[in-house]
Amino acid sequence: MITASGITKTYKQRGNMLGARAVPALRGVDFTIEKGGAVTFIGESGCGKTTLGRIVAGLETYDSGDIVIDGTPMSSLKPRHRQPFFRRIQLIHQDPYSALNPTRTIHQTLAAPLALRAKQTGRGKAWMEERARELLALVGIDPGYVLPRYPHQLSGGMRQRVVIARALTVDPEVLVADESVSMIDVSLRLGVLALLKDLRERLDVSVLFITHDIATARYIGGDGELYVIYRGQVVESGPTERVISGPVHPYTQSLLSAIPVLHGVERPGPERVVPTEALNEAHSDTGCLFARRCPFRTDRCEAELPALVSDGEQAHACLHPQRRNVIPVEAVA
Amino acid sequence: MTRTSAPGVRVKDLTVVYKTPAGELPALGGVSLSLAPGTITGIVGESGSGKSTLALSLLNAVQPPGRIKEGSVEIDGLGNVVELTGEELRRARGRQVGYVFQAAQNSLNPLKTVGKQLLDLGRSHDFDDLPALLKDARALLGRMGLDGGRVLDSYQHELSGGMRQRVGIMFALVLNAHLVVLDEPTTALDMITQAAILKIVRDVHHERGLTTLIITHDMGVAAEVTDSLAVMYGGRVVEHGPTTEVLGSPRHPYTKGLIRAIPRLSGDIDEARALPGRPPTLGTIPKQGCVFRERCPMRIAVCDTVDPEPVTRDARTVACHAVGRPATPIVPKEYV
Ligand SMILES: Nc1ncnc2c1ncn2[C@@H]1O[C@H](COP(=O)(O)OP(=O)(O)OP(=O)(O)O)[C@@H](O)[C@H]1O
Ligand SMILES: Nc1ncnc2c1ncn2[C@@H]1O[C@H](COP(=O)(O)OP(=O)(O)OP(=O)(O)O)[C@@H](O)[C@H]1O
Ligand code: SF4
Ligand code: SF4
Ligand SMILES: [Mg+2]
Ligand SMILES: [Mg+2]
């Protein structure tokens, strides 16, 4: 189990004449990933999802807060002693086209991490070969076909599966999948999602899923937790199905309303919410971070920062929470 | 001459081939498709189905190693663009047919600001009133949620992927063309930005009375904005009709499969089913018979030998042996 509490991160951007500009990417984020569980982060571009995923995978530093992995707070360890903990958390790159080295065959790509693993566990070459085949079979591709080939000889879906197989070489407990299906075709996309779901069930691997497309979150983790992130802050969280069918924060409602409606099959939700303006990093940091774009804001929203309050299951940070019916409903034929 | 009304477009028996080590192979195998004046048509289909090749053909812009081998593309006011060359063609592009090519986020000139490139474009089309052009560009960018002045002063590397994509859409619209072709206009965008851009595309389409073609691999995007929807597979248009009808009652087995593969927000998520198999590449498109048969659950004997002709009934065109012949009951003989 992984627990993150109060994670903050501010990037210093080299600005123009005005000197360095501080970009607050995360403003105190808490979440928990259970063993074998599924956690999804959603939010607009630039809200801090990738930053959070990289922090969880130990690939990015953070300014304050702590990450506790299976009872051990990372703050209690020296950086080099954190390594073995973070090795159990593997990031799957969002772009299967650039995640694999084009000059190496898939065999070579898998051999490097497997050699390390073999050394750690005192096993030999034969084990490596066998394990490479086993992992490729596990992710649903034919080892005989894939092993001798280079990435450009494989389809997007196959490449994404190779990337997942490579992440599995170290026997991870958590896979962080950052937009890992948005680059590939619909027909293949569902296959990769099904694979992640299957790995959860068969290997008890937890999945941290980062996406713009909330409907895909239902597919791998309908039973999991959803965190809606806005400008580096969790604004709503709870069981995935519950938040999707009953969102109370206007930002969550905006995200759900923006998902295209399959006219002819569905009708738009009756209370769809559209933000009054586009996301702008320069918007005020006082009061509710969403206030400038929120159709329901009051004077209070601009002065008071809403705290995350929970009913035990679903939490939200809004001064005027109200459940709205925004998701499409099945059209009657 | 610039048209002041929406043109109709008629693509007929279009075959486009690419030269490969294995010879010239067809990416479009005799495609026919009409865009009714004033409508928004969507083209969907998996990677490699020929969507971009078709879009490029509307501008006679297929580049070597590709070439238009056969067929015609009639655009009202322009004639058969397949026969246009040189100066005529250059002038038609941009002024009469506005377009955003796929991966437009990478097609800006890195050495010039967006504004400079806009002025170059205006001059090359003999615009006298360049300040008005800049003003229109700023207004369009503003509608898409960007600070127009800042964007025009920026170089490509100073803009995010999503910002560049909107700059591409601005270029497609700013010269006031009445036929607009958008190839994957929202792929780099998040949902909220995508919804905002799609709304603008639709609003501008209606305000200016355009004929618009949108290419996307995302069925949801097509569903949201188009009036008419064409589904491509293996260089063929396999189904075409009014969008709500194609989505609500798909007839071609491929269209059915694509729709079933979309994870939805409500209902039983496990009803979403992956389409088995993979789309063909140039080299693996079958030379005879139905191009979809390897993945088709409805396949019958004739599918192996005869490429199904598109048949139109009640505003719906479908190319499938198992569809459109209600008189003869179909018994699927083999499943794959
Ligand atoms: N290396 C960096 N240096 C400076 N700023 C950064 C850096 N990485 C990210 N940021 C900024 O931090 C914020 C959060 O970025 P992040 O990549 O986490 O967003 P995201 O939610 O993953 O967005 P997307 O959906 O577009 O992938 C953004 O404002 C971004 O510009
Ligand atoms: N320059 C080229 N040389 C050789 N083959 C090409 C070339 N451009 C495209 N093709 C092939 O032609 C076919 C159709 O390609 P096209 O780009 O039109 O597909 P698409 O439907 O737009 O796909 P995507 O969704 O990936 O953009 C594909 O099999 C592609 O590999
Ligand atoms: S606190 Fe106010 S501004 Fe913020 S989301 Fe709630 S209603 Fe909108
Ligand atoms: S023609 Fe035959 S193989 Fe092709 S889609 Fe129809 S039933 Fe399937
Ligand atoms: Mg990201
Ligand atoms: Mg394309």
From TrEMBL, chain A:
Gene Ontology MF term list: ATP binding; ATP hydrolysis activity
Designated name of the protein: ABC transporter ATP-binding protein
Domain ABC transporter: 2-256
Gene3D superfamilies, per the entry: P-loop containing nucleotide triphosphate hydrolases
BP terms from Gene Ontology: peptide transport; transmembrane transport
Cited Pfam families: ABC_tran, oligo_HPY
Family: Belongs to the ABC transporter superfamily.
Presence of keyword Ligase: no
Alphabetical list of InterPro entries matching this protein: AAA+_ATPase, ABC_transp_ATP-bind, ABC_transporter-like_ATP-bd, ABC_transporter-like_CS, Oligopep_ABC_C, P-loop_NTPase
Species of origin: Herbidospora galbida
Organismal lineage: Bacteria, Bacillati, Actinomycetota, Actinomycetes, Streptosporangiales
Keywords: ATP-binding, Nucleotide-binding, Transport
Automatic annotation (TrEMBL), chain B:
Protein name: ABC transporter ATP-binding protein
A Pfam entry, by short name: oligo_HPY
Biological process, per Gene Ontology: peptide transport
UniProt domain ABC transporter: residue ranges: 9-259
SUPFAM superfamilies: P-loop containing nucleoside triphosphate hydrolases
Transmembrane annotation, as ranges: none
GO molecular-function term, one example from the UniProt record: ATP hydrolysis activity
Keywords: ATP-binding, Nucleotide-binding, Transport
Organism superkingdom: Bacteria
SMART domains: AAA (SM00382)
